[in-house]
Amino acid sequence: MCISSATIYIVANHKTWLHLEETVFSLPFDTYPLLKPFIFTLDPEFAHNLALNCLKNRLIPPPRMRIDPCLKSAFCGLTLNHPIGMAAGFDKQAEIINELFELGFSSIEVGGVTPHPQPGNPKPRMWRIAKAEALINRFNFNSIGFEKFLRHMEVWYDETPHEKRGTVGVNISRGDNCPDDAQAYIDGLKKFAPFVSFVTINVSCPNEACSRELEEKDKLKALLDRLKEAHETLIKKPLLLVKISADQTEQQSQTIAEVVLESGIDGMIVSNTSAMRPASLDSPHAKEAGGLSGKPIFDLSTKLLGTMYQLTGGKVPLIGCGGVSTGEDAYKKIREGASLVQLLTSMVFRGPFVVKHITEELAALLKRDGYESVTAAVGANYKKA
């Protein structure tokens, strides 16, 4: 730490970041590499909860960021100042939305949330593979349920001025003990629609019993048809997205693309975690069941992203998710068809300055290749061909 007269953010009363112009303490560089060895001695789930509490109490100073105008992004009528968002799974209970915006994210997806409270799987249920910059988790939606989650959303919405609410989405899962899959999603859609910009229908979690059955053609079509009907009855209509698994065969990808095009759903998130275990995953934890995230699934999820962009003819807006940790990673997702990009695991390995680093690198890459905006680069690998 050093003394500086620069404008910075500091913690005050565990409530609000004060914007000061006077001589104050500052963090002139990213301190996470210094803290990371200690953090990695902690149990991964404990460390995650510690991070949530630190953010909630404003104990993590946000980075000073300058967003280049070339990063301005568009998605289904939404305009964002850059394309890097937080994926579902970090803020599972909708507790730190504004705090994540302060770290620089342009959009936040909270959840996944299930209709009823459920504890998830027994611990331990999360493992780091540090050399691979990967996580394996089998939380199976430890959720506070719709009602308590809704109260969190209402508090955030009421306490945040309209112009500062940002782009927020909610990820919904059917959870356990829900005999009518579609109704569980419909109930969530109706509850959260007034508060969010988009609702994600999660049909792809590898940790949830029978979840991927909903990616089968008839079941997916029936689900999306019922959701679209319910969506039309809403006064405020958030975007309706579907999130698919990274583990798709060519035929499964074709089927999903056909159903999504027929349904008229607003967009897709490609992709969720993977049940696969690459040979390069050299760790005793590799044998643990659950969803793999981070660098090892980057190529898999990015290839699927390009496949879905081609199969839908670029007509369905896509969010690229899976293994993003650098500006180059984000740029590859965009060129494969992503209008927006989400990350999660790289927060663990790169720390709270990760959005700052990615946006700076991404802006340089766009300018290097002559793109004036992110939108101009979306699907560039196929437009050129």
* Total discrete domains: 1
From N to C, what is the helix and strand string? EEEEHHEEEHEEEHEHEHEHEEHEHEHHHH
Query: Any guess at the CATH architecture?
Result: Alpha-Beta Barrel
Low-confidence stretches: 1-26
Any idea of the CATH topology?
TIM Barrel
CATH superfamily: Aldolase class I
Report, as a whole number of angstroms, the end-to-end distance.
50 Å
Largest sheet: 8 strands, parallel, barrel
Percent range of helical residues: 25-40%
Helical/strand content category? alpha/beta
- The chain-level mean pLDDT equals 91
CATH secondary-structure class: Alpha Beta
Strands, total number? 17
**Major sheet: arrangement of strands:** 7-8-11-12-13-14-16-17
Backbone CA Rg: 20 Å
User: Total helix count?
Assistant: 13
Question: Which descriptor suits the 3D outline?
Answer: globular
Q: Hey, roughly how much beta strand do the residues contain?
A: 15-25%
